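for ur thesis appendix - Cof-type HAD-IIB family hydrolase. copy paste whatever u need, i formatted it the way the template wanted (i think)
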Amino acid sequence: MEDLLKKAKEIKIIFFDIDDTLRVKDSAFMPESVNEVFEKLRAKGIMTGIATGRNLLGVVPEVRALQPDFYVAINGAYVENAQTQEVIYKNVFPTILVEEIISWLRAEKSEYSFVASDSLRVSKWDDIARNAIGPVYADLEENANYYKTNDIYQMLTISDHDDQLILPETLADKIRMVRWHPNSSDIVPMKGSKAIGCQKVLELLNLAPENMMNFGDELNDRELFDFAGLSVAMKVSHPEILEKADFITDSVENDGILKALKTLNIID
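the 3d part is after this line
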């Protein structure tokens, strides 16, 4: 614990995942203690950021109301100064790559979603898509050609056999899949991750990884847990994230973030 307290003294910015970290994904519950956390961090001069697989459309009003300093969205592919709306970094899929992914998924009889910076479209909106994406983004429009007129930062697989999808050799060195739901996986650039997005913020601020802390729970936080100086996993986290964590805290419903920051003497 002494080593953790020492690391905590170096923290100047903290990034938070949204789903099952700041708020419960299925019920949308977010404890009042989260507002207290952001107010106290702001008062101490510690910056905050949201690091999420969601795009800006998925950053719900109650999270925006926390007034974070940065958004690291779409698993690090789109980074924005939340106060000025200045784009700090973006990593767009080339059109030819999108078309290769579509061809593969069609051959595998999987539907898909396009993720733009602040919008999403699906190839087919059915019960499978509604079950996977609905709790995060609500109902979405169908548009299989959305990529032709919009920058695409990420795609999602949508199928009832998602666990059987295997990237072909022609794509395996360009993209990777990160499962986030039984019926859906994020399709991200081979070198894309929340860690890269957060690194862009640190470079802007002239900070080191040792100055950064993060809270998360799922596999799309994996690289971030390897990168940050101090990483905290929620009690309900994926086993791999629990193993990587420097500290494990309670669930959202039990004020896990507040408890961790108090235990580590970051806030009173």
